[in-house]
Amino acid sequence: MRKYLVLGFWLVSSALVGQDIESIKLTDLQKILQSPSDKVLVINFWATWCAPCIKELPLLEKLHQENSHVQVLLVSMDYDLDSDVEKVVRFQNRKKLQAKVLFLTENDPNAWIDKIDKRWSGALPTTLVINTKTKKRELVQGELAEGQLEELIKKVNN
User: For residue 108, how many other CB atoms are within 10 A of its CB?
Assistant: First the structure.
Protein backbone atom coordinates (compact mmCIF):
# COMPACT_ATOMS: atom_id res chain seq x y z
CA MET A 1 0.00 0.00 0.00
CA ARG A 2 2.76 2.42 0.95
CA LYS A 3 4.52 1.78 -2.36
CA TYR A 4 1.35 2.82 -4.25
CA LEU A 5 1.01 6.01 -2.19
CA VAL A 6 4.58 7.00 -2.99
CA LEU A 7 4.08 6.21 -6.68
CA GLY A 8 0.82 8.18 -6.73
CA PHE A 9 2.45 11.17 -5.02
CA TRP A 10 5.35 11.08 -7.52
CA LEU A 11 2.99 10.98 -10.50
CA VAL A 12 0.88 13.88 -9.20
CA SER A 13 3.86 16.03 -8.20
CA SER A 14 5.69 15.50 -11.49
CA ALA A 15 2.54 16.38 -13.42
CA LEU A 16 2.04 19.55 -11.37
CA VAL A 17 5.48 20.94 -12.19
CA GLY A 18 4.77 20.93 -15.92
CA GLN A 19 1.29 22.39 -15.56
CA ASP A 20 2.68 25.92 -15.40
CA ILE A 21 3.57 25.90 -19.10
CA GLU A 22 0.88 27.61 -21.10
CA SER A 23 0.86 27.73 -24.90
CA ILE A 24 0.10 31.24 -26.07
CA LYS A 25 -0.12 33.24 -29.29
CA LEU A 26 1.39 36.67 -29.97
CA THR A 27 -1.92 38.42 -29.22
CA ASP A 28 -2.01 36.77 -25.77
CA LEU A 29 1.55 37.92 -25.06
CA GLN A 30 0.76 41.46 -26.20
CA LYS A 31 -2.18 41.56 -23.77
CA ILE A 32 0.14 40.51 -20.94
CA LEU A 33 2.66 43.22 -21.87
CA GLN A 34 -0.04 45.90 -21.92
CA SER A 35 -2.11 44.85 -18.89
CA PRO A 36 -1.88 47.18 -15.89
CA SER A 37 -0.03 45.55 -13.02
CA ASP A 38 1.17 46.44 -9.54
CA LYS A 39 4.26 44.36 -10.24
CA VAL A 40 7.17 45.05 -12.56
CA LEU A 41 7.12 42.52 -15.40
CA VAL A 42 10.37 40.80 -16.30
CA ILE A 43 9.85 38.90 -19.54
CA ASN A 44 12.73 36.73 -20.67
CA PHE A 45 12.76 35.32 -24.19
CA TRP A 46 14.81 32.13 -24.26
CA ALA A 47 15.11 28.66 -25.79
CA THR A 48 16.20 25.26 -24.54
CA TRP A 49 18.90 25.11 -27.25
CA CYS A 50 20.41 28.51 -26.29
CA ALA A 51 23.43 28.15 -23.96
CA PRO A 52 23.48 31.82 -22.80
CA CYS A 53 19.74 31.56 -22.10
CA ILE A 54 20.25 28.56 -19.87
CA LYS A 55 23.22 30.18 -18.14
CA GLU A 56 21.13 33.21 -17.05
CA LEU A 57 18.09 31.23 -15.84
CA PRO A 58 19.38 31.06 -12.24
CA LEU A 59 19.41 34.90 -12.09
CA LEU A 60 15.78 34.98 -13.20
CA GLU A 61 14.79 32.21 -10.80
CA LYS A 62 16.49 34.02 -7.92
CA LEU A 63 14.62 37.22 -8.79
CA HIS A 64 11.34 35.30 -8.97
CA GLN A 65 11.87 33.70 -5.57
CA GLU A 66 13.23 36.73 -3.73
CA ASN A 67 11.25 39.70 -5.07
CA SER A 68 7.47 39.68 -4.56
CA HIS A 69 7.15 43.04 -6.39
CA VAL A 70 8.25 41.45 -9.67
CA GLN A 71 6.53 38.98 -11.98
CA VAL A 72 8.98 36.86 -13.99
CA LEU A 73 7.74 35.28 -17.21
CA LEU A 74 9.97 32.91 -19.17
CA VAL A 75 8.79 32.91 -22.79
CA SER A 76 10.06 29.87 -24.67
CA MET A 77 11.01 30.54 -28.27
CA ASP A 78 11.44 26.84 -29.07
CA TYR A 79 8.29 26.52 -31.20
CA ASP A 80 9.87 27.75 -34.44
CA LEU A 81 12.40 24.89 -34.42
CA ASP A 82 10.45 22.28 -32.44
CA SER A 83 6.71 22.59 -31.80
CA ASP A 84 6.72 19.87 -29.10
CA VAL A 85 5.85 21.64 -25.83
CA GLU A 86 6.75 18.45 -23.93
CA LYS A 87 10.42 19.14 -24.64
CA VAL A 88 10.07 22.44 -22.76
CA VAL A 89 8.09 20.71 -19.98
CA ARG A 90 10.90 18.19 -19.53
CA PHE A 91 13.44 21.03 -19.48
CA GLN A 92 11.36 22.91 -16.88
CA ASN A 93 11.16 19.81 -14.70
CA ARG A 94 14.87 19.01 -15.03
CA LYS A 95 15.87 22.59 -14.13
CA LYS A 96 13.13 22.85 -11.46
CA LEU A 97 11.96 26.21 -12.82
CA GLN A 98 9.44 27.91 -10.55
CA ALA A 99 8.88 31.09 -12.58
CA LYS A 100 5.96 30.98 -15.01
CA VAL A 101 6.92 29.46 -18.38
CA LEU A 102 5.00 30.39 -21.52
CA PHE A 103 5.35 28.50 -24.82
CA LEU A 104 4.95 31.02 -27.65
CA THR A 105 3.33 29.16 -30.55
CA GLU A 106 4.25 31.46 -33.43
CA ASN A 107 6.15 30.70 -36.61
CA ASP A 108 8.59 33.06 -38.32
CA PRO A 109 9.84 35.26 -35.47
CA ASN A 110 11.11 37.83 -38.00
CA ALA A 111 7.49 38.63 -38.86
CA TRP A 112 6.47 39.59 -35.31
CA ILE A 113 9.54 40.40 -33.15
CA ASP A 114 9.17 44.16 -33.68
CA LYS A 115 5.62 43.91 -32.32
CA ILE A 116 7.15 43.01 -28.94
CA ASP A 117 9.71 45.82 -29.05
CA LYS A 118 11.03 47.69 -32.09
CA ARG A 119 14.54 47.68 -30.60
CA TRP A 120 14.67 43.87 -30.47
CA SER A 121 16.82 42.34 -33.21
CA GLY A 122 15.57 38.83 -32.45
CA ALA A 123 18.67 37.84 -30.48
CA LEU A 124 18.34 35.33 -27.65
CA PRO A 125 18.32 35.66 -24.79
CA THR A 126 16.45 38.94 -24.56
CA THR A 127 14.89 40.40 -21.44
CA LEU A 128 12.16 43.04 -21.40
CA VAL A 129 11.43 44.84 -18.12
CA ILE A 130 8.13 46.76 -17.97
CA ASN A 131 6.51 48.95 -15.35
CA THR A 132 2.95 49.64 -16.51
CA LYS A 133 2.49 52.35 -13.86
CA THR A 134 5.45 54.48 -14.97
CA LYS A 135 5.11 53.35 -18.63
CA LYS A 136 8.86 52.67 -18.69
CA ARG A 137 10.45 49.73 -20.53
CA GLU A 138 14.01 48.47 -20.67
CA LEU A 139 15.30 45.91 -23.16
CA VAL A 140 18.49 43.88 -22.86
CA GLN A 141 19.62 41.70 -25.73
CA GLY A 142 22.13 39.07 -24.74
CA GLU A 143 23.02 37.37 -21.50
CA LEU A 144 22.30 39.24 -18.28
CA ALA A 145 25.10 39.96 -15.82
CA GLU A 146 24.85 39.58 -12.05
CA GLY A 147 23.00 42.62 -10.63
CA GLN A 148 21.77 43.83 -14.02
CA LEU A 149 18.14 42.84 -13.39
CA GLU A 150 18.03 44.89 -10.20
CA GLU A 151 19.41 47.93 -12.08
CA LEU A 152 16.80 47.54 -14.82
CA ILE A 153 14.02 47.33 -12.24
CA LYS A 154 15.28 50.54 -10.59
CA LYS A 155 15.27 52.30 -13.99
CA VAL A 156 11.64 51.41 -14.73
CA ASN A 157 10.55 52.30 -11.19
CA ASN A 158 11.96 55.87 -11.26
Answer: 8
Domain coordinates of the chain in residue numbers? 20-157
Torsion-angle region of residue 119: left (phi > 0), alpha (psi -120 to 50) or beta?
alpha
Using the predicted structure, report yes or no on whether residue 129 has a pLDDT greater than 70: yes
- 66 CB-contact burial (10 Å; exposed 0-12 / middle 13-18 / buried 19+): exposed
Distance, CA of 121 to CA of 55 (rounded, Å): 20
Provide the whole-model pTM. Answer: 0.86
pLDDT in tens, 131-156: 999 999 999 999 999 999 999 999 99
How does pLDDT run across 41-72, given as a tens digit for each residue?
999 999 999 999 999 999 999 999 999 999 99
Architecture of domain 20-157: 3-Layer(aba) Sandwich (3.40)
DSSP state of 110: G
The residues facing 104 across adjacent strands are 24
Buried residues in 27-38 as b, exposed as e (16+ CB within 10 A)? eebeebbeeeee
